[in-house]
Design brief:
186 residues, mainly beta, two-stranded antiparallel sheet
Length: 186
């Protein structure tokens, strides 16, 4: 089995996001549907890098940094692995967590894909039923998962088990919400 790169899918015709591979999304225009890189239209501040997760662009701290979009990124202090091991050996972080040296001090953090505060780092979800009805379980996190709607539309997530997208025209517009809605002519 041969793995395909995102370049193979770029500008390819598509119907849904999954036609584009994991790092692109299906963009719907007036007369087209094509695979695009979500990071092309996402602006991240200089502290962050754009990362695509399940067809959605997000701004994340680069590897070797800690933080989030609200507080910014702080570079993790570089220590030799033996110094890090010695400093972290005295700290018990608990399951699904890890020790990092921040500003010269060992601190516990939940591993990627887990939420909470050590020692109580847990998976947010395993299935869609673990999430509120307007969110889907994507990579063990509850996320807004709407796609496939046309121009001048709004999207909401179905509360059914599959959490499919429900598209509708914006107020004052009419047409096929899966393709495009145009202003109502009075």
């Amino acid at each position: 089995m041969k793995c395909e790169t995102s370049a193979v899918h770029l500008s390819r015709d598509c119907l849904i996001d999954y036609d584009c591979g994991v790092s692109l999304r299906c963009e719907t225009g007036v007369d087209y549907r094509k695979c695009v890189d979500p990071c092309e239209k996402k602006e991240c501040s200089s502290d962050f890098e754009c990362v695509v997760e399940n067809h959605v662009a997000t701004c994340k701290c680069p590897k070797g940094s800690t933080g989030n979009a609200f507080v910014g990124c702080t570079k993790d202090t570089e220590l030799s692995s033996s110094a890090t091991s010695a400093a972290c050996a005295k700290l018990s972080c608990g399951p699904n967590s890890e020790c990092r040296i921040i500003d010269g001090q060992p601190k516990c953090f939940c591993q990627a894909g887990y939420i909470g505060k050590p020692p109580a780092c847990i998976t947010e979800c395993y299935t869609n039923l673990d999430c509120p009805s307007d969110l889907s379980c994507v990579q063990r996190r509850c996320r807004h998962q709407c796609s496939g709607c046309g121009k001048n539309t709004k999207c909401r997530v179905s509360p059914s088990f599959d959490r499919s997208s429900i598209c509708s025209c914006l107020s004052g517009f009419e047409g096929n919400p899966n393709v495009e809605c145009t202003p109502i002519k009075y």
